[in-house]
Amino acid sequence: MVIKVYVASSTGSLAVKKHQQAVVGFLEANRIDFQEVDITMLEEQRLWMYRNIPRDKQPEKCNPLPPQIFNNDRYCGDYEDFFLSKENNTVFAFLGLSSQPSVKDSES
């Protein structure tokens, strides 16, 4: 099970940069394994991302903006979906993960 976060390393949008940083920062802080996929460097990955976002989640007039989150090939959602799951304390279910990774106690 691999969480993939599709990002754009070269974007002029401050909002997109902040959203990408929020998602990646949360995953790192919670020790959730993930793969960052840069759609500005890999055309195949960008096209795959566009094709695998459900139609009801695609904007009417433009391409979907990063970050877009997948668990393997299963679409989890975009930044707004991630933010809502974080607010509702349901991120692990949103990501399709069974539970929070355990952290070993260093005082044992």
Automatic annotation (TrEMBL):
Residues forming coiled coils: none
Gene Ontology terms for molecular function: SH3 domain binding
Any single Gene Ontology cellular-component annotation: nucleus
One Pfam family named in its UniProt record: SH3BGR
SUPFAM superfamilies in the cross-refs: Thioredoxin-like
Matches recorded under InterPro entries: Glut_rich_SH3-bd (IPR006993), SH3BGR (IPR051033), Thioredoxin-like_sf (IPR036249)
Domain of life: Eukaryota
Localisation: Nucleus
Keywords: Nucleus, SH3-binding
Family annotation (PANTHER family): SH3 DOMAIN-BINDING GLUTAMIC ACID-RICH-LIKE PROTEIN, SH3 DOMAIN-BINDING GLUTAMIC ACID-RICH-LIKE PROTEIN 2
Family to which this protein belongs: Belongs to the SH3BGR family.
Protein name, entry field: SH3 domain-binding glutamic acid-rich-like protein
Native organism: Maylandia zebra (zebra mbuna)
Source taxonomy: Eukaryota, Metazoa, Chordata, Craniata, Vertebrata
